[in-house]
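WARN no homologs supplied; continuing
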Amino acid sequence: MEVVMFVLIVFAFLAGVVTILSPCVLPILPVILSGSIGAGKLRPWGIIVGFIVSFTVFTLTLSAIVQAFHVSADVLRWVAAGLIFVFGVVMVVPQLKDLFLMAATRLTSRATQTPRKKTGGFWSGVVLGFSLGLVWTPCVGPIMASVITLALSQTVDLGAVLITLSYTTGTSLPLLLIVLGGRGLLNRFPSLTKNTGKIQRVFGVLMILTAVALFTGADRMIQTWLLETFPQYGSGLTSLEHQKAVQNALEARDKALGVTP
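OK structure emitted
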């Protein structure tokens, strides 16, 4: 069983890294890139922390959430869309941005019982990363799909936790590189830095459009079109998880948990 878990953990990590190229990521790419904009050196790390926490928690507690609140996965998408929409509006309207920063600073001060100080954008990044984690589920491949299916049937063990954390860690690496790369690009070109306010508003509009796409399901239409137009592209991304070793490991894990196909 240790070998099975090792195989699944390793391939879950690799699958997480490759996921950034998935068509389902394209509609939410503006949200990822928006992490490059704005003050605060800790903002990128907040995005990663928020993403890891939200995706892991919601993946492993799907059954409990569904039973407790009688909600579907679409409700979580709408919650994420709402958060993204609010962030978009905040980035478009300077006055709202100032109010948001003041509120975040006050909340942080009360939570830590320390004098008010700049938090480096960490907490705003956490909220943004949290919303990403809620809409990331459709991007997963066979390994995480198996974990989610088992979670819905209330089968969550240590293996599910380790696989999920491995996947989110793998996904977080390219996310962090994109955000840091965008920030480095801004710092490298002074002309871009001088127009940070305008760039923020552009990304704010893109985030609002992303939220609308999530509300209406237009993002799924875009994904479907891409996969139908470029079928080899979609299958190529999941080919890593269709390796015989991975399929055998998934079957062995299901058997050990007493899950019948």
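Residues 158-188 form the longest helix (31 residues).
OK
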